[in-house]
Each structure stands twice: as C-alpha cells, then as structure tokens.
Design brief:
This protein is α/β, with parallel strands linked by helices. The chain is built from nine helices and five strands, in the order βααβαααβαααββα.
Length: 137
C-alpha cells in the first residue's frame, strides 16, 4: 500500500522513537511526500531538536533513515493538481494543499495525517496513525 504522509507524521517520527517511526520503516508500505515538506522540516529543525533532545545532526541522521522508505515528489508532478487541491482544502489550511495535490496526482491509498481538518476531505481516504496500526496488525 502507498500513502501520502503529512508533515506532522514525519515530524512526529523525528521527535521520538515511536510507533509512527516504526510504521514509516515498515518495509511493505510505501510513503510519498511532496518536496515542500522537507523545507517545512528544515524550517523547524531547531524546535524539533529542542523538543526531541536530539542534536540537529542526530535529527538529520534519523531523517535520512526515514527517507529511505519515503519517495519525495517534485512540485512539477503535483503542480497540475494544485488548483483542485486548493478547492478541497485551501480554505481550511493552505499549507496542506501540496499533500492533497500529491494524493490527486499519483496512485495511492490515501493520506496519513493526524490533523483533524483532513477528516472531512472529500474523495480522498484519510488514515490516522491508529488506523494504520490496526491495518498492519
């Protein structure tokens, strides 16, 4: 199965060794991330470091391990879907437009996010961490 992951999922996996991190490393699942999300993670590395107790260098190591199982999608691939994604979620959170556009652009099984505003997204399945735990079990 293939899932688009929201930045909050990736940041959660960076903050602590958790079930989220374990799922991201699960070999039979595929994960997709718009390249924009890496910029978002970079912008918050100091805060992630402070909250996790890891140095920025350690964060980079964990991130590189996680990225081995995450395909980064360039903006050029999702650009044709940005307008439709904006109509679906832009009025709720414009920062989530790239994730919805990615879900529209490539074949996938839904978006993995714990953000409540994704719950009412029409036409795209949304998975919470608990849903994935149940699916894997």
């Amino acid at each position: 199965m293939k899932f688009v992951i929201d930045t909050n999922v990736l940041i959660s996996a960076l903050l602590k060794d958790s079930v989220t991190r374990e799922i991201l490393l699960f070999p039979s699942l595929e994960f997709l991330l718009p390249e924009y999300a890496l910029e978002e993670v970079d912008a918050h590395k100091g805060e992630i470091s402070k909250r996790s107790g890891l140095s920025v260098e350690e964060i980079d190591i964990v991130l590189s391990v996680l990225l081995e199982n995450i395909s980064i999608t360039p903006i050029s691939k999702i650009k044709p879907y940005l307008t439709k994604a904006d109509k679906l979620i832009g009025h709720i959170d414009p920062f989530d437009i790239p994730f919805v556009a990615l879900a529209l652009a490539v074949e996938n099984d839904g978006i993995w996010s714990n953000d409540k505003h994704f719950e009412n997204l029409k036409g795209i399945k949304v998975w919470k961490t608990a849903d994935l735990i149940n699916f894997i079990s």
